[in-house]
Automatic annotation (TrEMBL):
This is Fluoride-specific ion channel FluC. Belongs to the fluoride channel Fluc/FEX (TC 1.A.43) family. It catalyses: fluoride(in) = fluoride(out). GO terms for cellular component: plasma membrane. It comes from Pseudomonas turukhanskensis. Na(+) is not transported, but it plays an essential structural role and its presence is essential for fluoride channel function. Keywords: Cell inner membrane, Cell membrane, Ion channel, Ion transport, Membrane, Metal-binding, Sodium, Transmembrane, Transmembrane helix, Transport. GO terms for biological process: cellular detoxification of fluoride. InterPro entries: FluC (IPR003691).
Length: 124
């Protein structure tokens, strides 16, 4: 059990650092598009969770530590809909209703589409 906990913790730490680095880089280079970092990590994370889910379905013998470390830890730390919600709220508060609605719709439907695409890619 301790190996499982460590795998999730390590994956979560790495995923969180990747999310932080992405958001920081986007904000430094395109401050007017601060929400792009969260959007990108959510879409990429959804694609990766689809790929990993499909891959692990085909390879059930792989260790639970690897599966949980990547899906629960890394992707759980990488993607965050709490940041997504805050970014949407900030867009609404700044009077950017069309952008906020577009951002929310693209994030949700883009995430679903990316997850589906990732799963389909494992079936090729």
């Amino acid at each position: 059990m301790i190996r499982l906990i460590l795998a999730v913790a390590l994956g979560g730490a790495v995923g969180t650092l990747v999310r932080f680095a992405t958001g920081t880089w986007i904000a430094a280079n395109w401050p007017q598009h601060f929400s792009l970092g969260t959007f990108l990590v959510n879409i990429v994370g959804c694609l990766l969770i689809g790929l990993l889910y499909g891959f692990f379905l085909m390879r059930p013998e792989l260790p639970i530590e690897l599966r949980a470390g990547l899906i629960v830890g890394f992707l759980g730390g990488l993607t965050t809909f709490s940041s997504f919600s805050l970014d949407t709220l900030r867009l609404l508060e700044s009077g950017q209703l069309p952008l906020a609605l577009g951002y929310a719709a693209l994030s949700v439907f883009g995430g679903l589409l990316a997850t589906w695409a990732g799963l389909l890619l494992t079936k090729l």
